[in-house]
Amino acid sequence: MVSKRKKKYSTGEGSQFISRKQALKKLQLTLNDFRRLCIIKGIYPREPRNRKRAQKGDTGIKTLYHIKDIQFLMHEPIIWTLRDYKIFNRKVGRAKAVRDFKTMKKFLDNHPTLKLDHIVKERYPTFIDAIRDLDDCLTLCFLFSTFPSLAHIPREQFNLCRRLTIEFMHAIIEAKALRKVFISIKGYYYQAEIKGQTVTWIIPHHFSFEPQSKQEVDFKVMSTFVEFYLIMLGFVNYRLYHSLNLFYPPKLSISTPNESEKALVDENMFLSERIAALNTPLVKTSNEPVEEDIEIDTFSENNPEKIEEARNEAIKIKKLKTLFKGLKFFLNREVPREPLVFIIRCFGGEVSWDKNLFVGSTFNEDDETITHQVADRPSLEKQYISRYYVQPQWVFDSVNAKELLPVSKYFIGEVLPPHLSPFVNNERNPFEQYIPPEERALMDPAFAEEINKKRQEKENKQVDCIDNNDELEHDNNEIIKTNGLEETEVEKLDPALDKKKKLSVAPGTIYKEEPWMQKKQERQEYKLREKMIKKKHRKIYRAMIRNKKDKAKESWLLRKKRRIIDESKKDNKT
Amino acid sequence: MTRKREKRKPPKSISVVERHTDIDEKNEADEEDENVYFNTIEEEDENSASDSELEDDSDGETEKVLEDFVDEVNSEEYSDSDEHNEDDNLESANDNVNKADSVDESESDNELEEDDSYESEEVSSAPESDSDSDQEEKIKGPLKNKQLKQQSVKVNNKLSKLHQNGKNKFQNENKEFPSGKDEYADGDTSDEEDIRNTIGNIPMKWYDEYRHLGYDWDGNKISKPEQTDTIDNFLRKIEDPDFWRTVKDPQTGQEVVLNENDIELIRRIKEQKIPDVSFDDHAPWIEWFTSEVMQMPLRKFPEHKRSFLPSRDEAKKVSKLVHALKMSWIKSEEERRKEKAKKEPQFYMLWQTDDQSEEMRRIHKHIPPPKRPLPGHAESYNPPPEYLFDSRELKQWNKHKETPWKRKLHFVPQKYDSLRKVPAYSRFIKERFLRCMDLYLCPRAIKMRLQVEPDDLVPKLPSPRDLQPFPTLLAIEYKGHTDMIRTITTDKTGQYLASGSDDCTVKVWEINTGRCLKTFKTDAVVRTIEWCPNEKLPLILVASGRKVILINPNVGDFLQNIKADEILKEKPQSEVIVSDRVKTTVRWDDPTEEEYEKGFRIILSHFKEVTQVTWHGKGDYFASVMPDGQNRSVLVSQLSKRRSQLPFAKSKGLIQCVLFHPSRPFLFVATQRHVRIYDLVKQAMVKKLMSNSHWISFMAVHPGGDNLLVATYDRKMLWFDLDLSTKPYQTLRLHGTAVRAVAYHRKYPLFASGSDDGSMIVSHGMVYNDLLKNPLIVPLKRFQDHTTDNDFGIFAVHFHPLQPWVFSAGSDSTIKLYSN
After folding, report:
1. Using one digit for the tens of pLDDT, what is the confidence trace for A523-541?
2. For strand A328-331 and strand A64-66, is the pairing parallel, antiparallel, or unpaired?
């Protein structure tokens, strides 16, 4: 008996992947519904190892989904809700067409709703997973909370975004989880540490909304993302509040409006405004202290240096949590209120603002106990002697430095020092990558002193009319000498050359040339060795080298630009 | 009810009420005796007469007002034309009554008719001394009055009142006339229809040119009153105290003196007050229709049964609603609110613990999306100045508008000197959208990233310093050739070097001094020369053009040279018949005297150009290659027997190079792409080596015989380990251009290669005796001393037979010696 011939692409990659069109057919969904489903369920196309085989011999590029992902979608109950939507839309459309507004209203009132709770649980089986994936969620929700109402997007979404993000910020304040902040041209970056996971999000600057052309941005897609993210953020908030012993729909200690105000304001509005002010602590369910981070396990690592380092880090963070404790801030009206209040409250400071600016201010400008007033204008007419008038960058830089920086550089009217990103890797090699001098000064104070000294020395030298290059030359000579010694040792080992050299060498000249020769020789040898790289690694090696060269060039360029700027500055001064 | 009250109507809302009362009263009057009614009328008339008298006395100021007002009234009159028509009908009827004394049955009301008849009788008794118009006026007066009363139309009343007033005035004026006085003696001052003029609603100016004003009821002309000139007017103004309140009736041309009430009325209207003086604006509100629900019905008759029974229609509606509620098609407000609250997302404790998960269906092999890279210093709102773009960088950035992925940064760094000046980032939404699209549409795969430094990829080789000796320095240059040198060779003792060049000479040099000892001129370009490996035969094999020449250079040991000459002189005798194929290929010739003097000993003339010759290790056999010779391209000759053989019957391609195995009877034949190894004894191919390259240029065999180094024009050198496989053990890409020459050192583990870029690389190539250990190859040093000419660099490399020295010959017609 002849065994049946195996069909092509019935096993292996050819059978594992399915194109989007096929998936639509299989799920019996429209592209819009499929997109919505994919976004909500977190299904994404996958890159096959061999595209041609995965596309069953088709060339070109298709969107390929894993067959198991599509099967996973097939069992999703919200598919039925999506189908209900289709029917609902048809019904409403018909009622509208025949101008039967009564039934249309009836339909509209009973519109189907997507329930996404189980999908949150499914996508993020543990709380940690959810936190790990919170970056995009927060950034998008913060962005949406600034939007005006848009066509095709339910208006509740914007309100809910605003509510949940404010609640999240409260949780961060209560947990004192904020670690790094950064003002970028895009917005404010915040980095918090929740349950050992770093979460970074961006809050755009004011007036971030701009109408976008249809080809550029499809708000409907974003809205679908927000639809899921809102549910996720709500559950994360609930869990965070619970772990911090707070009531979940947050409660304020001064919850009710005055008698006089009571008649005028809606109580819910009043409360949500106070919550949005971020300035009053939330009511706790119990006074039990929230479990702090566990002490670092000393047994886990054998390296005592590392343990020491970790301990230092922990102490620093502990300090950081109470960075602004005991300080009283007053925000001028031109200062962006929300980011600063959030940061100051995160690190234990007290803050207030002009009571006409926003509700929730706690003390007035004439309070004598204010220690810092944050202002962002070139000069102020009326100034109190008892407080520092600093620019907002001081707050940000202090947080990133994990200590209160000297305020003198940040007084109003001063030219601010550069605002550095706290996110760049600190463990860089200063010889390979460029580190601006300001950052190096922050990293080790010794460097700052060195710079100052050098500057002074240079100035002195200029006074004495001594060539600037002298020092450098001196250094170079030293290096040459040391290298020269090594070289002579090597030479001695080489018996064949020994004789010749003994005859012809004039000591002075040889010392100068040999290190250079040595280096050249080494380079040559290395070049030859490079040629012995296996064919398999040759390309990647070249790419790496090119990369390295590019980086070196970039850092060289930065260094050069800095040098030119510094010199021009000095020229201007003199 | 009083007449006055009826005439001066309050604003509409109230007027309705009054009309009601009028109607009520009228009803009552209907029910009551007619006489009573008449009495009241008479009384009323008297009242009004007294009023008019009073008014006469009173003075007024609003003279000017009057003219306008009269116009107004006229217009009002015209607007109510229907009523006038009705009136007209009535009046015509009255006329009939007057004349024929008959009762017209067609009139609406009996009472009215009775009334009319009564009045007309009354009027008829009056003397008829007055003018026609006056008389008529008087006749119609009461009639009209009655009519108005019954109709009780406000505007008309007002009008009639005005007319009446006018009438009064008229009376006053006519007081001189006795008839006038008689007429009103009975006190009947009530309104009468003034319309004696029948011209209708036309502008009176049309009659300006005529002596009359129109026509009365009988069709007689109404003559204009006498025109008064201004002086008369003036005099009257002075004399007549009532002049200011005298108005002219445009229809009759008569002058009318307005009484006090009229003036008051006009004044009030002008002031936009309610014309009735007695009307109280602020009177307490009388609720005519009470809002209180009374216990008992006001109606006399009982309610119909229907009103107690529930309506069937309503019941149907209610049942429908109930059904809808039951089926929850419609919802109460509260339910709706609840439902809305339910539709809002409800949050609860989804994760009980931090990191323990339930068993659930999951996405298959989930690949979490990579996080966005965190911002560097350049993204700061106030970056260090060096991060800002200068004009060149900005230009570069702008250049990549269409290809943004090539940009160094995806944004242009900006510097703002304070936070308040930072604007919103215009691409923020777009960037978030792109991120969303990436999350949803970007294919994901797990890529293993190599966590290696580039240095780790470079093979760890022993340092060249540990592999000494090898040539490191350029020691001697041998100059003398005038064209490029194609080939070099050394004698066995390592004292002499021979070189063959394109200038058709072979030169012999002393190695240590660099002196050229001898020069042999040949006829053609010297392709290859090789010194005989046999010490006893100090001969150089030279391939020049179609000839292969054996030259005794006469250097070195004198005795040996003579011996060699002697050996070569005696020709071996052999009976072997040389085949035609060989005969046509090669011819062994003895040199001429002249040539012998030069040092030529034997000359082999080939049928094609010879590119390469090579000795067998023992120095008896040598092979020559003629690439154009097809199946006769390789020729093996034996010196001792002066005999040649063609080992191959078939051509295997363009033959580049042949070599003898140093110890075994093998012949390596390199065609363009392959190297074949033939066993000459068995006359069979042993192996075919695959070069994986396009064109082999040269090859060299290791003195051990197990390794073969093949140079190719496509920049590679291939090291074949014959024990391992037919594929190269290692491919060396040490050179950047075509490799033309390779050579092994006879004693030291060294090999060298020269290429077209004028560089020579000396490498360590250690072959171990242990079969399990693979050869070790370490490039040691690169020499770049030859200049290139016409894209040719080095043509030949050759090692010194005893010392670790290497010679290289190139297109710059020099030979260089590198020593350690």
Report:
1. 888 889 998 898 888 999 9
2. unpaired
- From the number of C-beta atoms within 10 Å of its C-beta (0-12, 13-18, 19+), residue B268 rates as middle
Question: B-chain residues within 8 Å CB-CB of A218?
Answer: 433
- pLDDT at residue number A38: 95
| CATH 2.130.10.10 domain range(s) in chain B | 467-819
CB of B733 within 8 Å of a chain A CB? The answer is yes
What DSSP assignment string belongs to A89-148? HHHHHHHHHTT-HHHHHHHHHT------HHHHHHH-SSHHHHHHTHHHHHHHHHHHTT--
Residue A504: per-residue pLDDT: 63
Complex ipTM value: 0.87
**B448 in contact with chain A, both atoms CB, cutoff 8 A:** no
Question: Contacts for B669-676 with beta carbons within 8 Å, 24 or more apart?
Answer: B669/B634, B670/B696, B670/B698, B670/B699, B670/B710, B671/B696, B672/B696, B675/B699, B675/B708, B675/B710, B675/B720, B676/B652
Q: Which residues of B touch A132 (CB under 8 A)?
A: 368
Q: Which of A78, A110, A185, A230 to mutate to test the interface with B (most CBs of B within 10 A)?
A: A185
Instruction: Decide if B345 touches A, using CB distance below 8 A.
Output: yes
| Phi–psi pair at B699, nearest 5 degrees | -150, 160
* Ranges of each domain in chain A: 16-109, 118-209+217-277, 305-410, 533-574
Kindly state whether B357 is in contact with chain A, defined as any CB-CB distance less than 8 angstroms: yes
- The residue type found at B804 is P
Residues of chain B with pLDDT under 50: 1-160, 165-192
B770 touches chain A (CB under 8 A): no
Angle in degrees, CA B395, B400, B404, rounded to 5: 130
Give A480-512 pLDDT, tens digit per residue.
444 444 444 444 444 554 555 556 655 565 555
Give me the half-sphere count of Cα atoms (radius 13 Å) on the Cβ side of residue A388. Answer: 19
CATH match for A305-410 among 3.30.1490.20, 3.40.50.10190, 3.40.50.10420, 3.90.650.10: 3.40.50.10190
How many C-beta atoms surround the C-beta of residue A162 within 10 A? 18
CB contact under 8 A, A183 and B382: yes
Chain B: nearest CA to A472, how far in angstroms?
Answer: 24
B343 vs A75, A113, A545: nearest CB: A113
Alpha helices in B101-247 (DSSP H): 110-124, 132-151, 154-173, 178-183, 230-239
What pLDDT sits at residue B597?
87
* Cα–Cα distance, B207 to B648 (Å, whole number): 152
Classified by CATH at the fold level, domain B467-819 comes out as Methylamine Dehydrogenase; Chain H (2.130.10)
What's the pLDDT tens digit per position in A54-63?
A: 999 888 999 9
CA distance B718 to chain A (A): 13
d(CA B716, nearest CA chain A) in Å: 11
Instruction: Quickly list H helices, A331-392.
Output: 337-346
Residues forming beta bridges with residue B634, ordered by sequence position: B625
Query: For residue A2, what pLDDT is reported?
Result: 79
Nearest CA in chain A to B465: A494
- Binary contact (B445, A419; C-beta < 8 A): no
Going across the sheet that includes B657-660, the strands are B657-660, B666-670, B674-679, B684-690
B727 neighbourhood in chain A, CB within 8 Å:
none
Nearest-CA distance A464 → chain B (Å): 30
Q: Mark yes or no for CB contact B461/A532 under 8 Å.
A: yes
Residue B357's pLDDT is what? 75
CA angle (A39, A41, A43) in 5-degree steps: 70
User: Vertex A180, ends A174 and A183: CA angle to 5°?
Assistant: 115
B594-642 pLDDT, tens digit each: 888 888 888 999 999 999 999 998 888 999 999 998 888 999 999 888 8
